[in-house]
C-alpha cells in the first residue's frame, strides 16, 4: 500500500496552492439552491484528477464536480477538490482538499489538506493517523458535558433538514457546537482531538471518505447516527473520539424518538424575562 498517501499528499498540496491562488479573486456561481461553485473548485479538480490518472491509470475516481471516471479495478478515489466552497466564496478561511481511497469497498488511504494553516492530515489503514507527519489521537474526553462538538447543514433541501433539533439539544449538554463549514476538517479535528464529535445529515462520499479513515486510524469511531455501520452513501454520519460514542448514540436515539429534553424557547416570552 506504501505510496498512496505520499502521492495523494503531494497532489493535495498542489491543489491547495491552486485554492490559495484564487482566494478573494474569484466569483461564485450557483449550481443549485444555495450550492455554490467557483473556478477554484474546477481548477483544483482538474489538477487532482489529472494527477491521479497519471499515477494510478487503472483506478476509478468519484469527484464532486464530475471529473471522475469508473473502473473495474476495485480501487476508487473520492475527491472533494474544494471542501468549504461557501466559506471560500466569501473569503472565510476555512476550506480544504479531501482525497480518500477505497479498495473493494474498504477505505484504505486518505488525506485532508488545509492550505490556510498548512496542515496535512493523513492516514493509511493500519498505520495510524498523522498531522504534518506527527501521530495524532482522538481526544480522551469521557462525557458529552465536557465535549466540543460540530455539525453542518447542507446547501440543498434545507427545508427538509431536521438537524436544527439535534443542534439545539447538543448545544444544551456540551461545551458548545461549532459549524465551521468544511466537513472534511470537522472529521480531521475529531481525529486530532480539537473536537470530540462531528455529525451531519446528507453528506456525500467525497466529504467523508478521507475523514472517516483518518478518524478511525486516530482511535475514533465512525457510524451512522443510530450507531450502525457507516455508509458513504448513507443519510447521516457521526465521527467521535470513541469514549463518548455510547452517550452520543443514546442522545441521538432520544431525539430521533422525539424525546426532547430541552424544548426550544418561545422567542417573545424568553426575551421578556429579566
Ligand atoms: C460542504 C461543506 C459543509 C457541509 C456541506 C457540504 P462543499 O461541502 O463540507 O461544511 O455542511 O454539507 O456540502 O459543498 O463546500 O464541498
Ligand atoms: Ca464538501
Ligand atoms: Ca466541494
What features would you highlight for this structure?
274 residues; alpha+beta; D-Maltodextrin-Binding Protein, domain 2; 2 domains; seven-stranded mixed beta sheet; five-stranded mixed beta sheet; binds D-MYO-inositol-1-phosphate
Supply the CATH superfamily name of the largest domain: Fructose-1,6-Bisphosphatase, subunit A, domain 1
Structure ligands: D-MYO-inositol-1-phosphate, calcium ion
Shape: globular
The proportion of residues in beta strands is: 25-35%
Radius of gyration: 19 Å
Strand order, biggest sheet? Answer: 3-4-5-6-7-8-9
- Determine and state the CATH class of the largest domain: Alpha Beta
Number of helices: 8
The secondary-structure element order is HEEHEEHEEEEEEHEHEHEEHH
How many domain modules?
A: 2
CATH architecture of the largest domain: 2-Layer Sandwich
How would you state the average pLDDT, rounded? 96
Sheet having the most strands: 7 strands, mixed
Amino acid at each position: 500500500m506504501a505510496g498512496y498517501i505520499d502521492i495523494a499528499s503531494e497532489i493535495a498540496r498542489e491543489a491547495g496552492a491552486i485554492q490559495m491562488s484564487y482566494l478573494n479573486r474569484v466569483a461564485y456561481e450557483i449550481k443549485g439552491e444555495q450550492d455554490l461553485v467557483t473556478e477554484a473548485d474546477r481548477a483544483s479538480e482538474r489538477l487532482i484528477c489529472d494527477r491521479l490518472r497519471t499515477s494510478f491509470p487503472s483506478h476509478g475516481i468519484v469527484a464532486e464536480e464530475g471529473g471522475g471516471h469508473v473502473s473495474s479495478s476495485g480501487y476508487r478515489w473520492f475527491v472533494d477538490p474544494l471542501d468549504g466552497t461557501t466559506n471560500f466564496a466569501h473569503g472565510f478561511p476555512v476550506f480544504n482538499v479531501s482525497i480518500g481511497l477505497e479498495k473493494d469497498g474498504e477505505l484504505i488511504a486518505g488525506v485532508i489538506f488545509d492550505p490556510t494553516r498548512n496542515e496535512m492530515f493523513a492516514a493509511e489503514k493500519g498505520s495510524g493517523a498523522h498531522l504534518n507527519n506527527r501521530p495524532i489521537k482522538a481526544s480522551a474526553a469521557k462525557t458529552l458535558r465536557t465535549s466540543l462538538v460540530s455539525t453542518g447543514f447542507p446547501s440543498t433541501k434545507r427545508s427538509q433538514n431536521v438537524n436544527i433539533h439535534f443542534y439545539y439539544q447538543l448545544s444544551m449538554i456540551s461545551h458548545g457546537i461549532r459549524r465551521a463549514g468544511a466537513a472534511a476538517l470537522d472529521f480531521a479535528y475529531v481525529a486530532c482531538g480539537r473536537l470530540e464529535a462531528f455529525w451531519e445529515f446528507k453528506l456525500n462520499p467525497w466529504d467523508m471518505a478521507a475523514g472517516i479513515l483518518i478518524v478511525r486510524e486516530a482511535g475514533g469511531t465512525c457510524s451512522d447516527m443510530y450507531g450502525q455501520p457507516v455508509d458513504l452513501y448513507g443519510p447521516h454520519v457521526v465521527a467521535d473520539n470513541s469514549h463518548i460514542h455510547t452517550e452520543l448514540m443514546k442522545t441521538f436515539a432520544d431525539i430521533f424518538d422525539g424525546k426532547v429534553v430541552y424544548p426550544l424557547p418561545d422567542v417573545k416570552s424568553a426575551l421578556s424575562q429579566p
